[in-house]
Design goal:
It is built from 18 helices and 3 strands. By secondary structure, the protein is an all-alpha fold. The longest helix is centred in the N-terminal third of the chain and has 20 residues.
Length: 415
């Protein structure tokens, strides 16, 4: 209802009499349910009314509103010279119009845009389904792999039985000569996985997988990027537990630094994944691999404090939600890395990197220095390969001193 945000009877009348006024009471209720405060909601409603007049002048009925019309309205704003009471050039006008279109689509007043599926080679589509079913691949991974697989098919053709090692290597070398290291590495991974899929169904020889060259990566040549325990404590202390942002960010940082979770693990954490009675949490990692990890007291207390005091009352199963309207789950792992970066900057910490992953490295380093074995560290971090965990052995000062050999003195021993 508009009365949630508008006190003036005159303004209420103006809004309800505008060309889209019949929808604004329900729209205001949606804004309220998704956490809009009074002033942002008022500006959003003003923008919707402005858009309503603009569309009415062009004889566009509500049922025909679409994203192209919203774009045209946004183009009108910089030079707006409308004479009605809701004219203006504020950014809330275009944002309000887009939010209103989303509301109309949700309510079925305006049809959802028709999504035309992109034509895909049958073999690539079969590969996509196999990756989802048998490898637990996410949409993000498939979004990288599928274009590369289709490029591979376009280059080598659909007759997979005729593939040979020379063709595979020539394709990889052609990509590496035209693109950087990142694109080449993605191509190698995509082609290798595609050939495994082909060999699993007998479309090509299993020996062909070995023809994919490896990209040189000296993974163990550098030291792990981490921040020490004192800096972790400063990072946690910089988050104010008495406000929504600080409470949420503190719980997230404790999960990252205490359990070595990835940013995506935190983003995807659901309320049902926290087993309070057993003091543990469930993490669904890469390949949909489910793991239960112990929930430390401090971490559990921080999550509970956020849930009880500051988590928005929004019907969603994710533990962590956006703190600003519209409420909802975090759209990606990017905001988690950003909040870690902001906390590092506020704390004045000189970190080797600024994203969430530095806390995963820090958790592994801290465990190792406390005497935890590499096997246990690998289990907590959910590494599939022991080499990934072995990378952290280089920060175990005590172990390195024990195995270090004395430097030979000139004249003693063999040259």
């Amino acid at each position: 209802m508009l009365e949630l945000y508008i006190d003036s009877e005159d303004k209420l009348r103006q809004l309800r009499q505008c060309p889209v006024g019949e929808y604004l009471d329900d729209f205001a209720q949606v804004l309220h349910s998704t956490g809009y405060k009074q002033r942002p909601a008022q500006l959003t409603l003003r923008g919707v009314a402005h858009f309503g007049y603009w569309a009415s002048e062009r004889a566009v009925p509500v049922e025909h509103i679409n994203s192209e019309l919203i774009d045209a309205f946004a183009g009108h704003l910089p030079a707006c010279a409308c004479s009605h009471n809701f004219q203006g050039r504020d950014v809330y006008h275009s944002a309000g119009a887009r939010r209103f279109l989303s509301y109309l689509q949700t309510e079925g007043i305006v049809p959802l845009p028709l999504v035309v599926p992109v034509a895909m080679a049958p073999l690539a589509e079969h590969f996509r389904n196999w990756m989802r079913q048998h490898r637990g691949a996410t949409d993000g991974t498939l979004g990288v792999y599928l274009p590369l697989v289709e490029e591979f098919l376009a280059t080598l053709g659909d007759d997979t039985s005729a593939y040979d090692a020379g063709q595979v290597r020539d394709f990889i070398l052609a990509v590496s000569s035209q693109h950087g290291h990142g694109r080449t590495r993605s191509t190698v991974n995509a082609v290798r996985m595609f050939l495994r899929f082909l060999s699993a169904y007998g479309y090509c020889s299993s020996d062909l997988v070995a023809a994919v060259p490896s990209i040189a990566r000296w993974r163990l040549a550098s030291l792990p990027r981490y921040i020490d325990a004192d800096d972790i404590e400063r990072l946690i202390a910089i988050c104010d537990p008495n406000c929504a942002a600080g409470s949420r960010d503190r719980a997230i940082i404790l999960l990252l630094a205490g359990l070595g979770l990835r940013a995506g693990d935190v983003r995807d954490l659901l309320l049902a994944d926290v087993d309070w009675s057993q003091g543990r949490i469930r993490v669904m990692g890469k390949g949909r691999c489910e793991t239960w990890l112990p929930l430390p007291q401090e971490v559990g207390d921080a999550i509970l404090h956020y849930l009880e005091n500051f988590r928005p009352g929004f019907d969603d199963e994710h533990v962590f939600l956006r703190i600003h309207a519209p409420f909802g789950p975090l759209r990606s792992s990017g905001p988690i890395s950003k909040l870690v970066r902001r906390a590092i900057q506020r704390a004045g910490i000189k970190a080797p990197s600024m994203g969430a992953h530095v806390l995963r490295h820090s958790a592994a380093t801290a465990m190792l220095r406390q005497g935890v074995s590499l096997d246990i560290v690998g289990a907590v971090l959910r590494h599939r390969c022991v080499e990934s965990t072995a990378h952290y052995a280089k920060v175990d000062d005590a172990l390195l001193r024990a195995v270090a050999q004395p430097w030979p003195i000139e004249g003693e021993g063999p040259c």
